[in-house]
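Deliverable D4.2, example record:
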Amino acid sequence: MLDALVIGAGPSGSRTAWNLAKAGYSTSIVEEHEIVGEPCQCAGLITPRTFEYLGYRRPVSQEMNGARLWGPKESFLNFQANETKALVIDRPDLDRSIAEKATDCGADLKSGHRYLGHRKSSNGIIATIQSKSGKIELETKMLIGSDGPASRVARDAGLSSKREVLAAFGADVEGYQGIDNHVDLFVGSELAPRFFGWGIPTGPNTGRIGMATVLPDRPKNFFRDYFHKGAPSKLLGGAKIINRVSGLIPFGIREPSYADNILLTGDAAGMAKPTSGGGIYSGLISADAASEVIENAHQKEKFDSKTLSPYQGLLKERIGGELSKGYHLRRAFLSLNDDQLAEIISILGEPKVKSAIEKTGDLDYASLAAFSVLKAQPKLIKFAPLLLKPFI
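Output generated by the structure prediction step:
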């Protein structure tokens, strides 16, 4: 019998397995794809804080210290910070590096294996896995669902909750006319309704572009317009698609994120940030919290939901506050029309407001910049009174 079985070798799953294997617990990771990290479903933009949290670095394609914001009605703003705000990385490489840390510590990685379901046993849980040669069963004391937004582990455990789900579509392109060290962001109902689009330079003449919108709208249809109209078309004249990527982004922490013998981490637990859609850093935080709770359960030799319930509190304490503030910021954003967005972009260009953004802008903690901007220009409250709620 295993001490822990992790479903999914993304950052949060592999980090959980790494922690548990390092602590001496027998741990296996089930990954449905043959190669960890592929196909890629991420724009590959992280903060330097993510590497600090991991305790090691991987190769970086670009260090980003600026952003260009393209809005409705020809509104535009260019930000330039004095420090690196984000890093462009090879996301599959990052995923594989964390999985390798787990296997180096003794975790067993089963790639090309697919989780089919589980049932309770007298000692824990029996998971049914589709292997390359047929179905196998693995018995474990703890099952960790790190299997993404549409988590089958969560579904099978009855851990369902209403969440907003975005669909994202993007591509790696040649012929991207961006600016080194600057991310391009696109907002407005015609190009990226209810979220935003992005363009990230990855090298000379190459970039990673994409957009996300709320289901049932299909992002692929809006993505086509990037090459033909509006601000993105100015940067994509003659661009050629090299590789396409797509994925789902869930907003809202799943509550609860645990059941008897089960914990969820990463996107399965709802760790994506409502302001940016990113979830690597917050997913790693959830992995460490899960590991602590699981180790405590092993020490007590109790794996019931009551023993695992402190996990929810750890999520709220360590990252839930920021995710909650991000949720309020998103609601405020959704209340705006294109005319208001254009006016806000104009206000953000005021020297004192722009300076506040450049100093405090943070992909992981967007509320810091939001609070600084409101202090610099309180009249922004007129557009969305909801903006004030997280800061009272």
